[in-house]
Amino acid sequence: MSRFAPQIAPRLKAALAILVLMALVPVAAHAIGDPFLSVIANRMLVFAIAALSLDLILGYGAMVSFGHAAYLGFGAYAVALGARWGVTDLLAQILLGMVFSAAFALVTGAISLRTRGVYFIMITLAFAQMAYFFFVSQGSLGGDDGVALQGRSTLLGLSLDGDVTLYYVTLGALALVYAGLYRLTGSRFGRVLKGTRENSLRMQAMGYRPFPYQLVAYVIAGCLCSVAGVLLANLTEYVSPAYMGWHRSGEMIVMLVFGGIGTLTGAMAGALVAVGLEEVLAAFSEHWRLGFGLALVLVVLFSPEGLTGLAKRLGIGGKHG
């Protein structure tokens, strides 16, 4: 175990440092008298969960999905549908979102994983667009305009109406998702998944069938992304098919590029930086996408491994954080 300690400790410390800093945001927001800061930070946490889920299949499994946002939408609509069915508990809504996502991921993943490269990208996009247009066609749920929620969910009888309460629930969910993925990627399952990413033929020669591992990872990633969707719906108190749009999937990939693909801490940090940068640039100009694109180009040119690569060069963090 000691042989691996130098690699494991730094990435855990980095992740813990991020979580502790984010835990202090509501305190800082109260101190400066700007409660909206907590709302922005909550959005950052939500997309950090989504980015972590995508990193499982893209970073560790080399499955470039351009339809991952579909699961964000499934989670969000689980809140809207759950409220209509009298289910207001957050945990029950998360379970409902996971059921929707698991069913969709199992069917579409079994088909998509029979393709490779650009064909896999396009077929995941096609399935996500099918889900998008399905909800657009649902007039009872507001169609393309979406639907406003009557209120936020409850958690074991506790109301989440307060922004600070919802914030710490989201932070706790992020910590649990990170811890779960950390254990998963470090397990035998994770090692097989990474081996398949590096050389699928060699893994087959060793007696492993890549397909079941990839499909299970695909389903797990979809379920975890739906958790982010449930929390996003509670944050905005609004649900829309726009959550499932292809551009949202692209934004998640950009988050991984910012942080470093194939590193859990990098995925989390990349989401925080991407959402934060968007908010900062939007405060200065309505053409913030120009500055955002320039920042992305600079990252790709000078630090292809994102923030993780930069941390390595500065002697901070481990190899696979």
TrEMBL record:
Entry keywords, A to Z: Cell membrane, Membrane, Transmembrane, Transmembrane helix
Membrane topology label: Multi-pass membrane protein
InterPro entries linked: ABC_transp_permease, LivM-like
A Pfam family it matches: BPD_transp_2
Compartments in which it is found: Cell membrane
GO cellular component: plasma membrane
GO molecular function, one term: branched-chain amino acid transmembrane transporter activity
TM annotation in the entry: 41-62, 93-111, 118-135, 165-184, 211-233, 253-275, 287-304
PANTHER family named among the record's database cross-references: ABC TRANSPORTER ATP-BINDING PROTEIN (PTHR30482:SF17), HIGH-AFFINITY BRANCHED-CHAIN AMINO ACID TRANSPORT SYSTEM PERMEASE (PTHR30482)
Protein name, UniProt field: Amino acid/amide ABC transporter membrane protein 2, HAAT family
